[in-house]
Write a structure and sequence with these properties.
There is one protein chain. The strands form two sheets. The protein has a four-stranded antiparallel sheet, with no helix packed on it. A three-stranded antiparallel sheet has the order 4-3-6, with no helix packed on it. The termini are far apart. The chain is mostly beta strands.
């Protein structure tokens, strides 16, 4: 791969907040892409990955993909705390709605030929 992007997010989660922008089943990136990710998360509110993945040919747009994946009746397995999980653009997963307050530390590495890394810091006011 040409680039490696390191994405690190530290966020204070409150009860009722989602851990990511979509708590439905979804893919990261483009389903047809070849992105590879490594995820390390420490927090009681962790991402779930599909237990088995019978995904054959999902629609191309994001909203239709989400509805397609929800219709499969996937069962989620929570990422064990402090465990590195590798996955790709074809791996269904979902965030969760926080049940307890906590600080989420999310580190993702993206190996790609198409996304050129940029250094920036985002802060919530």
């Amino acid at each position: 791969r040409k680039y490696v992007l390191v994405d690190m997010i530290v966020k204070d989660h409150r009860v009722g907040e989602p851990t990511c922008r979509d708590v439905r089943w979804h893919f990261d990136g483009d389903y047809g892409g070849t992105n590879v990710y490594a995820l390390w998360a420490a927090d009681p509110n962790r991402t779930e990955f599909a237990e088995s993945v019978p995904v054959l040919d999902p629609p191309s747009d994001r909203e239709s993909q989400n509805r397609y994946l929800e219709g499969l009746g996937l069962r989620g397995v929570e990422v064990p705390e402090m465990t590195v999980v590798t996955y790709d653009s074809r791996t269904p997963h979902r965030g969760v709605v926080c049940k307890v307050p906590g600080n989420r530390i999310f580190v993702r590495l993206l190996s790609t030929d198409t996304i050129k890394p940029k250094n920036f810091v985002r802060r919530r006011a």
